[in-house]
Amino acid sequence: MKKLTILIFVFVLCLSLLCGCEAGKTETPQGFTETTVPVTEVQADYEEIYGEILNSTYSLITSDKTGIKISEAETGIAEAVAGIEADKALGVVGYTFKDLSGDGFCELVIADVADSEESWYKSSEIFAVYGMVNGTPFPVVAGRARSSYKLLDDGTFFYEGSSGAAYNGVGNFRMSQGGTALICNEFYFTEPDETDVSKVYVYKNKTGKWNTKNSEKTQLTGDEFSDIRKSFQEKAVTLELTPFSDYK
To answer: Of 7, 67, 95, 177, which one's alpha carbon is 20 to 30 angstroms from that of 74?
Structure first.
């Protein structure tokens, strides 16, 4: 009964966040200027630097979620550990530090431990990526069910989302230098015809937004759209993570 209650809670939370969501959606902090010149790789104690996020994530995993306000960047984590006992849940979610923005400073990546027996996923699903802006952790990526991210072998991100059978999206994003935003390389999404829902079209843009007015209507078929998804999936990498069971 307790497991069912948790699953219902996570489903409702996910559904509410899904409404109006956009691929790669993020906000750049006020007054922050992104770095444009590569800097020397920073050697630092990243566990201490991102300690606040790591501590709060550990607490989220081990809590019963009752009465806890879960942020967008924490939603995927809550989904991943729903219904799993706390000691086992700590082995489902892990973290690592990687310089994904190319500015020499590592971002914090929180993701699914793919080889965990309790995991609901079969690959390294990214739940969150945090950068550091003016000494404060800043969420750049927030992944969850039906709006997920994976890291590709070239350091970019594969996005896959869906809000219904006829509404699917796949895309490729890179992190901005300075680690404050995701930049869209290419984004494809499907949407049915306004007057005939049996006709589903594939649209393309470089904004990462589900907006037909600002997108190119392509001649791609459903099979070709699936091939694009598959081509990204084949480039996804398995992250080497420290499970939160080893954090404390």
So the answer is: 177
Classify residue 136: in a domain, yes or no: yes
Among positive and negative, which fits the CA dihedral 227, 122, 55, 8? Answer: positive
pLDDT 10s digits, 181-193: 999 999 999 999 9
Higher-confidence position of 34 and 58 = 58
Longest dimension (CA), the chain: 58
What pTM does this model have? 0.83
- Determine the structural domain holding residue 65 and report its residue range: 38-243
Print burial letters for 229-247: b (CB count within 10 Å at least 16), e (below 16).
beebeeebeebebeebbeb
Residue 165: inside a domain: yes
Instruction: Give how many domains the chain has, as a whole number.
Output: 1
pLDDT value of position 12: 42
Q: Residue 93: inside a domain, yes or no?
A: yes
Q: Convert 98-129 to b/e letters by CB count within 10 Å (16 or more is b).
A: bebbbbebbbbbbbbbeebeebebebbbbbbb
Mean pLDDT of 66-85: 93
In a domain, 149, yes or no: yes
Calculate helix-pair angle for 72-81, 51-62, nearest 10 degrees.
40
pLDDT tens, 112-161?
A: 998 888 777 777 899 999 998 888 999 999 999 999 999 999 999 999 99
